[in-house]
Amino acid sequence: MSDITNASAPAPAFPGGTILGYPRIGRMRELKRALESFWKGASTEADLESVAKEVRLANLERLAALGLGRADSSIPSNFSFYDHMLDASVAFGVVPTRFKDYELEHGGFDLSGYSVIARGEGDKAPLEMTKWFDSNYHYLVPEIGPESTFELASLRWVDEFVEAKEAGFVTRPVIPGPLTFLYLSKPSDDAPTGFEPIERLDDLLATYDDLLAELAAAGAEWVQIDEPILVADIAADRSEVLANAAKAYANLVGLEKRPALFVAAPYHSLGDALPVLKDAGVDAIGIDLVRGSVPADVDLTGATIVAGVVDGHNIWRTDLDEALRKADAVAALGATVTVSSSTSLFHVPHTLQGEEHLGEELLSWLAFADEKVAEIVTLAAAREQGEHAVAGALGEARAALKARAEHPGTNRADVRDALAEVDPGWFERGPYSARAAAQANRFHLPELATTTIGSFPQTPEIRKARAAWAKGELSDADYEQAMKDEIASVVRLQEDLGLDVLVHGEAERNDMVQYFAELLDGFDVTKNGWVQSYGSRCTRPSILWGDVARSAPMTVRWAEYAQSLSDKPVKGMLTGPVTILAWSFVRDDQPLGDTANQVGLALRQEIADLEAAGIGIIQVDEPALRELLPLKKSEQSAYLDWSVNSFRLATSGAKDDTQVHTHLCYSEFGEIIDAIDGLNADVTSIEAARSRMEVLPAIRSHGYERQIGPGVWDIHSPRVPSTQEVTELLQLAKDSIPGKQLWVNPDCGLKTRGYAETTETLTHMLEATRAVRGV
Ligand code: GLN
Ligand code: ZN
């Protein structure tokens, strides 16, 4: 086989089974630790490079051991030190000019410079971070202007291919696609209004040409170009997107020196972009058959389709029979079919090995990355050799699926009966005017009432106490006392500062979802099930496998204790149903809305108990409401209906004089403003400091009549804003929202902050509030 394919030579055969990507942080989060040590100055760039290389090579060996081919491009090379979109900004030479000083003499960035672009330094703001499609992964937003110069400025993708080749693997480099890259970019600061990054498509394509030539010269037979943007409904006109796709891929297909092109479109259906890619002549097309589908009438004759039949975004064991049926259905449309994961596996943990505490039963229902690779190898064998060749594996999968469906915990009569009793009245509270009057009477809060979002700094002492307790080195009673002491000190601090509505500080919570998952029925938690959230940050989603029920109060004793220490109201603090779902691995055997209502009902009971314990203000956080918004417009209103309903089910039992708060972690309300109104909370706190209250005029013109707390402190950085700065933000807020509807609070919880900046900033916040109140 020749090293280099070109437009006229046929592409090498695509392997029978593959995955779109593999976790890149390391089985024991080696890369996380190496990055953090490098950032602290405790290790060198060479140390970091060597850990990264070990992670990459270990992944290759692992994937080969699981049955992917060493030499047939079935193993993807999808490593990144921090983020794949950042890698693309660096590789295409379009790093914003504010980072010029960090550029190396011969161009490009070393890992220190790369880290500055990711994390900022001094007055250099990092690239903005935002959610990747409808996942909980965050990418760094490229900044593109009319003046940006595109050039191939890094050969890391080529180097990593060569490194693998030297270790005996012919891998498939994975590169963000040109459309995805540009449509997810934002205009650079100096771009004129109206400029769109996609206007630079031709220039970017020239850089892809160079990159593909380099990869071909290095011996890459296939390259994977990820174009998830093609499945999403975005602001840009669809016909423009399709025209750009046609143009981009005609260009890349026509190159003389290039590897075969595999264009992957995870996260949903390609829809009308599928024929566009096929007609452009790309060598293989990846489609997501877990979230999406192909129309039954599309003609795929002659196409190679990489059928994403194994869920890359969730952890359930695959229904292999159904997966084979889906692959066959695509083959029946005329395509040559490869089986694959629906998305990159970097959304799921490495392996179930080491999770034996979950018990044999639950374990047998699950598949993390490694187990999914094994499933794909099984599916490929079934297609190539016939099902009899893998009869054992197919039988095991069938048995596990059956056991899961029949398990009493996945279908509890008590939970089902309780939900069946819910009637429409359970979603409604009394009119806001009556609630507002009752609450004013009860709390006598001043205009511009001050509060915080919930958590106070999670100090090393708190973490140490929790770790010791988990290991059995600290008794329950001693742990309880340590947390109470922490709560007492947080309450005292807030009283000294003069806040109006206090919080208990959430010291007892390892994580705002896992804390509840550990107390509710229907969940389990892993030991090492980490997935990358951004950069070196990982989260450990809980597993929501069964019917959800509350067997005992979850937060009441902490809230009650905190309230006993102060005459001021202390907020009860809960995580909302949508966020609990979004940040867990959720069962896929019933509609999400049903699961959300089960959680909603459990929270409703908790709220009743908090009220009975004398807690008058209760906050139910929904920071993930925006994140789960479907990529397809046609699915959004159904989503917003069930998500808003589950929140209302949780909160509408509250009495009129109980003040319900909610908190949302973003400021882009745009398409969900009706839904936020629909939550019907008495007070909603949002992020607003960085965007300088930009969203408030829209909220005002929407006719929002309840109370709102636009954040005045960007808690994502340790920077302390001055009293003057906070005063200006508050005045800006008052320009849009009447003072009696306004609250004063930070953007989000303070758990990642230290006490020094927390105390100082809250002092400034209160000084600013007094200034704006005019007292
Ligand atoms: N109450 C939570 C906290 O303060 C909210 C966190 C969040 O919105 N992500 O930590
Ligand atoms: Zn938040």
What is the topology?
Blueprint: H1 30-39, H2 45-65, E1 76-77, H3 84-91, H4 111-119, E2 129-131, E3 138-140, E4 143-144, H5 156-166, E5 172-176, H6 178-183, E6 186-187, H7 201-218, E7 222-226, H8 238-253, E8 260-265, H9 273-280, E9 284-288, E10 304-310, H10 320-332, E11 336-341, H11 360-363, H12 369-385, H13 391-406, H14 413-420, H15 432-443, E12 449-450, H16 460-470, H17 476-497, H18 514-517, E13 520-524, E14 531-534, E15 537-539, E16 542-550, H19 556-564, E17 572-575, H20 577-582, E18 584-586, H21 592-612, E19 617-621, H22 636-651, E20 659-663, H23 673-679, E21 683-686, H24 696-701, E22 707-710, H25 723-736, E23 743-744, H26 755-773
Parallel strand pairs: 1-5, 4-6, 5-7, 7-8, 8-9, 9-10, 10-11, 12-23, 16-18, 17-19, 19-20, 20-21, 21-22
Antiparallel strand pairs: 2-3, 13-16, 14-15
Helix pairs in contact: 1-2, 5-7, 7-8, 8-9, 16-17, 21-22, 22-23, 25-26
Family: Belongs to the vitamin-B12 independent methionine synthase family.
Function: Catalyzes the transfer of a methyl group from 5-methyltetrahydrofolate to homocysteine resulting in methionine formation.
Protein name: 5-methyltetrahydropteroyltriglutamate--homocysteine S-methyltransferase
What this model shows, in words?
Belongs to the vitamin-B12 independent methionine synthase family. It comes from Demequina muriae. Catalyzes the transfer of a methyl group from 5-methyltetrahydrofolate to homocysteine resulting in methionine formation. This protein is an alpha/beta fold. It has two domains: 17-96 and 123-350 and 365-407, Alpha-Beta Barrel (TIM Barrel), CATH 3.20.20; 437-773, TIM Barrel (Alpha-Beta Barrel), CATH 3.20.20.210. The protein contains 26 helices and 23 strands. The strands form seven sheets. It has a seven-stranded parallel β-sheet. Strands 17-19-20-21-22 form a five-stranded parallel β-sheet. Bound molecules: glutamine and zinc ion. Residues 453-455, 506, 512, 573, 621, 623, 663, 665, 748-749, 751 line the site of glutamine.
